[in-house]
């Protein structure tokens, strides 16, 4: 087996983050997969000077509405299958990179996902719930095919009270609604592991997103809404999962996963 290092980050605009040189730290890391969400760009608009490291492959899924949403995946793996997930993301908002690749002993389905935000309206909340349920059905089929699964991204849900600074005050806010949190309960019950909580089950005050308002990051009034989940057959392969909250440039911070595959 080989150790693979994954990074996931909602950059809130890849061109904006390039101007801040906020991805240069990638050159100092051993990174095999760099999964970015909310890039707000087409492949042609992605700056060439994000970092010096050269990845063998770049997969970009841009939204049909230019300047919004979008995901990008940089990796050194040659997949045998790729998809933009339009069957799940029916509004074509550029929310999914899906690649399948094989190691010596495993058949991996890897997803980089920017899940919908439900705060705008009831329609958007309904779409968010539908998006999750469609993904769950698809994952069931992949498991039947013998796939091991890794999913990262901005899930736009804080799962437990430990995962946000003010749980009581946000009980009626999308991102911490009971019906949203049940989705992550369902995900776990389907046989998926929240890798950060696997290594840090009771660690408090570790968040991945902070509002730009009210000095939220300075006071650490945040939410943990970015995750790496893996199917439970990969449990013994897990090496480490971290929140890289010392890295700035977005309203989110990066997260990482190290795993033997």
Q: TL;DR?
A:
By secondary structure, the protein is an alpha+beta fold. It contains four helices and 14 strands.
E-strand count = 14
Tally of alpha and pi helices: 4
Q: State the helicity in percent bands.
A: 10-25%
Count of domain modules: 1
Instruction: Identify the CATH homologous superfamily.
Output: Endonuclease/exonuclease/phosphatase
Largest sheet: 6 strands, mixed
Instruction: Work out the radius of gyration.
Output: 17 Å
Strand content: 25-35%
At CATH's second level, what is the architecture? 4-Layer Sandwich
Which structural class do you get from the secondary structure elements?
A: alpha+beta
Explain how this protein is built.
It is a single chain. This protein is an alpha+beta fold. The protein has a single domain (3-260), classed as Deoxyribonuclease I, Chain A. It has helices at 14-19, 122-144, 178-189, 195-199, and strands spanning 3-10, 33-37, 57-61, 71-75, 81-83, 96-102, 107-114, 148-154, 192-194, 209-210, 222-223, 226-231, 238-243, 255-260. Strands 3-4-2-1-14-13 form a six-stranded mixed beta sheet. A six-stranded mixed beta sheet has the order 5-6-7-8-12-9. Strands 10-11 form a two-stranded antiparallel ribbon. Helix 1 (14-19) links the parallel strand 1 and strand 2 (33-37). Helix 2 packs parallel to helix 3.
């Amino acid at each position: 087996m080989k150790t693979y290092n994954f990074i996931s980050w909602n950059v809130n605009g890849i061109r904006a983050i390039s101007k801040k040189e906020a991805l240069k730290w990638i050159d100092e890391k051993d990174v095999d997969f760099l999964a970015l969400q909310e890039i707000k760009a087409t492949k042609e608009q992605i700056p060439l000077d994000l970092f010096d490291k050269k990845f063998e492959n770049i997969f970009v899924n841009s939204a049909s509405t230019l300047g919004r949403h979008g995901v990008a995946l940089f990796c050194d793996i040659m997949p045998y299958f790729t998809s933009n997930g339009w069957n799940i993301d029916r509004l074509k908002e550029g929310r999914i990179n899906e690649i399948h690749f094989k190691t010596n002993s495993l058949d991996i389905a890897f997803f980089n996902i920017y899940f919908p935000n439900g705060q705008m309206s009831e329609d958007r909340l309904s779409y968010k719930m539908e998006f999750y349920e469609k993904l769950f059905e698809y994952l069931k089929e992949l498991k039947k095919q013998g796939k091991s699964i890794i999913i990262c991204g901005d899930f736009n849900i804080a799962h437990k009270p430990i995962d946000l600074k003010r749980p009581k005050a946000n009980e009626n806010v999308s991102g911490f609604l009971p019906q949203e949190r049940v989705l992550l309960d369902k995900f776990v019950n389907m046989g998926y592991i929240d890798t950060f909580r696997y290594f840090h089950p009771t660690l408090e005050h570790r968040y991945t997103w902070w509002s730009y308002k009210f000095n939220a990051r300075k006071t650490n009034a945040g939410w943990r809404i970015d995750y790496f989940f893996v199917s439970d057959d990969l449990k013994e392969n897990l090496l480490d999962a971290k929140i890289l909250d010392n890295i700035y440039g977005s309203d989110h911070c990066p997260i990482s996963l190290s795993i033997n595959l």
